[in-house]
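Consider the tokenized backbone below.
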């Protein structure tokens, strides 16, 4: 038996250490992309008003007779107040001097990612809560949704677009409405023969970069793993239910304050960006406080910090122009 082996020489066998850290997995952050994005300065809130239309005139005029005056148009007012969010991490001088990984640069990126995901999630939660709610396959309640009979289908998409058109909703870019799907729902639709035959698929690079996968029926389809999923709320309290959002122009807004950080699009980086959601574009400014910046509260220069802060308030402006279809898909019972 050889005396020089891996057991006896264990302390001498070193691990090949990869200094390049692996890419972190992040969802494509798309929910805020089509919002109105006003910024206010020196005001405590923002008010937007919408005038209602007048009814049609179907009675002919009588000669010499003045018709009845029309009633004043109705006015709907929505008021939005800005809200702040933030987070921070404190680091020590010894960590900075002794840890081999590029901790500070990576932590800065991680904080930026956290801010971007927080932004996307806050907007998403508002959209699925206060939009017009509907259910796939003409089900009337979320607890009745069951897979596979209530899986999202081409028919569901046609009906949601029909509802938007009936409300005279406007396409977000003058041409297309927006659909946001979970990858599980997109995969389910790709097993629907009618959907596949109608769907105009984009090149794979688009989905990698920003979630855009193609067009169908005057709609651009985006995929994000951050699309809302409710666990075990469907039939038998064992079926997962998903949200599909159908968005028209001026249906929602995100309010910010001038002089305060407000997230920009964080999902528009190139395919080679790290990670694929565009880390090279910061969602907000990262706030850094170096070692010793606390003055007498840190007399030995032992603590520094990194943080982010954003001003963000999402709000539905017209619930008739944004719809949330609750549905099951092929993964609901997994």
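A designed sequence for it:
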């Amino acid at each position: 038996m050889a005396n020089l082996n891996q057991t006896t020489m264990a302390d001498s066998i070193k691990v090949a250490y990869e200094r390049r850290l692996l890419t972190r997995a992040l969802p494509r952050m798309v929910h805020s992309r089509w919002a109105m994005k006003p910024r206010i300065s020196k005001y405590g809130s923002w008010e937007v008003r919408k005038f209602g239309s007048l009814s049609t005139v179907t009675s002919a005029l009588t000669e010499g007779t003045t018709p009845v005056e029309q009633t004043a148009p109705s006015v709907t007012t929505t008021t939005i107040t800005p809200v702040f969010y933030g987070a921070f991490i404190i680091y020590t001088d010894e960590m900075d001097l002794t840890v081999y990984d590029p901790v500070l640069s990576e932590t800065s990126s991680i904080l930026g990612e956290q801010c971007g995901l927080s932004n996307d999630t806050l907007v998403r939660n508002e959209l699925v809560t206060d939009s017009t709610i509907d259910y796939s396959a003409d089900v009337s309640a979320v607890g009745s949704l069951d897979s596979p009979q209530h899986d999202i289908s081409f028919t569901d998409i046609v009906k949601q677009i029909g509802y938007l058109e009936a409300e005279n909703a406007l396409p977000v870019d003058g041409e297309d409405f927006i659909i946001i799907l979970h990858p599980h729902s997109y995969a389910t639709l790709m097993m629907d023969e009618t959907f596949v035959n109608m769907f105009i698929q984009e090149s794979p690079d688009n989905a990698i970069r920003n979630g855009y996968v193609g067009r169908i029926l005057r709609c651009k389809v985006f995929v994000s793993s951050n699309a809302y999923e409710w666990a075990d709320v469907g039939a038998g309290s064992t079926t997962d239910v998903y949200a599909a959002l159908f968005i028209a122009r001026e249906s929602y807004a995100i309010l910010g304050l001038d002089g305060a950080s407000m997230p920009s699009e964080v999902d528009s980086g190139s395919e080679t960006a790290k990670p694929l959601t565009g880390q090279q574009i910061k969602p907000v400014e990262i706030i850094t406080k170096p070692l010793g910046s606390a003055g007498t509260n840190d007399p030995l220069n032992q603590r520094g910090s990194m943080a982010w802060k954003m001003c963000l308030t999402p709000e539905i402006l017209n619930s008739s122009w944004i719809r949330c279809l609750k549905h099951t898909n092929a993964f609901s019972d997994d």
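Residues 266-281 have pLDDT under 50 and may be disordered.
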